[in-house]
Amino acid sequence: MNFLPAPANTGIRFRRVDLEGKPEIEARVENVVETNRSTTLGRGNVKIHTVEHVLAALAGCGVDNAIVELDSNEPPIGDGSAREFCRMIQSAGLAAQAEKREPYIPSAPLEVKAGETNMTIFPGEGFRITCTSSDKGGRFTQFYSVEITPQNWEKELSEARTFCFFEEIEYLIKNGLIKGGSLENAVVIRDDAVLTTEPLRYPEEFVRHKILDIIGDLSLLGRPLQGHLIAVKPSHSANCELARQLQAQMQKPIRTAQAFGPPPSAPKGVEDKKAVLLEALDQGQGLDAIQVMQILPHRYPFLMVDRVVKMEGDFISAVKNVTLNEAYFQGHFPGHPIMPGVLQLEAMAQVAGIIMLRRAENAGQIAYFMAADNVKWRKPVLPGDVLVIEVEMTKVRGKLGKAKGVCKVRNEVVSEAEVTFMLMQS
């Protein structure tokens, strides 16, 4: 394996020099294809296994741009830590580049839960990882908290070796996961005994290696992080999922701007309106009629939302002013105008669509009304009434959403239903 310098904004790239064309794979979370006990990157038929220790060394030493050349599908394991990789970096030396280094500070806390694994990151100054690790039986429970700096990385973390429990070895061998494994490059725990060719390098070497893995996996975000990460029983799968969520949060303003933004040549007044809409969506503020029409595709006579009052999490409250000028009053009914119940149902569906389309990843799509259950119309809605539509999302799975909606007039429920809808490209 060779480390080569790279121009600014290259990021970290792995290059397979043993394959025709010397294909490269960017160290980005979207290229992660496997997380079974290690992190594997892939593109097409090309894969590179167990990249986390190399990535941790580069990230820990503050390297933003580099080419990692390999003549195999996996970096050398070394002694199971990142020590040898740090020595390679130190022997080559570091060079500052003119482009500004832009760390990412999470705009809001993020949490990943999977079984006994729990990872939460909070915005903050610097980058701190607080971690607790143990096996399924609670053995060798260890805790460690450290500020991640190049100095602390090298001294406190880089030499922590990988480890496994003795009862796992048969499974790992059968699945070809430790073909080069030995006590030279891993620590084995058997019952209460620690099997190793040398004394433990740190009192909490196991949890420190878990932190090492986290640093390597989170570097797949492509930018340095600032914040405080609290991890309980972390895994490569959870680490990479957190990186994906961070990436989605980081890209949210960009995707929202692309979906709701005017053309690049739009006048300044339009740009100001776009900025106000983005802020309102992000902070859950109310939306006026013009902003509603920037989100919903519906138009007269089928736009059933005049204004959004507030958005809080999965809850949204909106208003429809029912006037005598509504087209449907001409035939429903002459001399006795009543707002059709199905249009109240449509209003619930449109409001539910707004809360779904508020999410940046869904921007620019259309919410198609699919089903309604437990529909009840309790009182007539008349011209001059102000229809308050309250909707709470109850289930979201991919592009499918379910919500509970009620319509009120003067704080009395006039209709209610459970609606199902699907998001599709417009």
Describe the structure.
The protein has 426 residues and is α+β, with helices and mostly antiparallel strands. The protein folds into two domains: 2-254, 2-Layer Sandwich (lpxc deacetylase, domain 1), CATH 3.30.1700; 262-425, Roll (Thiol Ester Dehydrase, Chain A). It contains nine helices and 21 strands. It has helices spanning 52-60, 83-92, 150-157, 169-174, 205-218, 236-260, 268-283, 289-295, 341-357, and strands at 2-5, 12-16, 24-26, 32-34, 40-43, 46-48, 66-70, 110-114, 117-122, 127-133, 142-147, 163-165, 187-190, 193-195, 227-232, 307-312, 315-321, 365-377, 386-397, 400-409, 412-425. The chain has a six-stranded antiparallel β-sheet with strand order 16-17-19-20-21-18, covered by helices on one side. Strands 8-9-15-10-11 form a five-stranded mixed β-sheet. The protein has a four-stranded mixed β-sheet with strand order 1-7-2-3, with no helix packed on it. The two termini are 48 Å apart.
